[in-house]
Specification:
Helix content is 55%, strand content 9%. The protein is an alpha/beta fold. It folds into three domains: 104 residues, Ribonuclease H-like superfamily/Ribonuclease H (Nucleotidyltransferase, domain 5, 2-Layer Sandwich); 95 residues; 101 residues, no CATH class. A hairpin with a 4-residue loop joins strand 1 and strand 2.
Amino acid sequence: MSLIKVVGIDLAKLVFSIHGVDQHGKCKLRKTIKRNKLLAEIAKLPKCIIAMEACSGAHYWAREFKKLGHDVRIIASKFVIPYRQNEKNDANDTEAICEAATRPKTRFVSIKSEEQQAVLCLHRIRQGAIKDRTARINRLRGLLAEFGIIMPKGRYPAQKAIVGILEDAENNLPFLARELLNDLWQSIKALNEEVLKYDRKLYALANKMKDAKRLMSIPGIGEITATAVVATVNDAKHFDSSRSFAAWIGLVPRQYSTGGVARLGRISKRGEKHIRTSLIHGARAVIANCKNKTDRTSLWVKDLVQRRGFKRATVALAAKNARLIWALLHSEKEYQVDYVK
């Protein structure tokens, strides 16, 4: 009897589906198992490839299965979908995961350590607090507009104006509305303190992380971007080139080429959104402060702004910084200004 070579697991909260095949792709295992019995069931299997879709809990299970000596692979769902036969259900999903895991062109997600996931926890919670703050400022803006009071554009001007609006006794704002809007304003101030607390944690973490400190030497890369990259990218060698790394982030133009004619479009919303946003914000800050600088990057950026405009230059610099990040992580070298190979 041939041994099981590949096992696909459809992850869930309580009940998991398992599908195992031998070296010829013939099904040797198909069952449904509860969460508290999954590890014991996997421990019974011979050393093999265990594949799962990237989802909540995938990295935890990957670490546990690796402890048992298995070759664990996490696959993005978009690479599993083409191999699913018939309707979508747990059994067909696990079969598709098995098939995708053995394909030579399938890309796998690097398994994150607990420390990396802890740093990403900080980033996600910080992002949530910023999103809540923006929503509450917009809510405050909309409610005041119902009383004919218009707040200035921008987060800082709006927060600066709200105190005067709430204290103005002649703007005909009803007492109940003034009281409720003041409660909303207090919650916004509390969120400001919360975001500041998370920022300080990130700054402290960045100074303790060796790779993050090296990345921060690149103009436009700060503590937030550096810690996000180090926590997300387990090993830069998983990317074949700097371009593939930039494409993973989402800073490479979409391509629609046929008949030998290359057609490049805009960047899309695909990719690692948080890192892409941080890189673009950093690039915008670099461009805004490069007017009097004469290094190679500043001269290139100023020429690009004149030829293609500010926004295109911002994305181009962000893509350039993404490639620099890959080069530093891949080579483990320090950043050098005006480096010539």
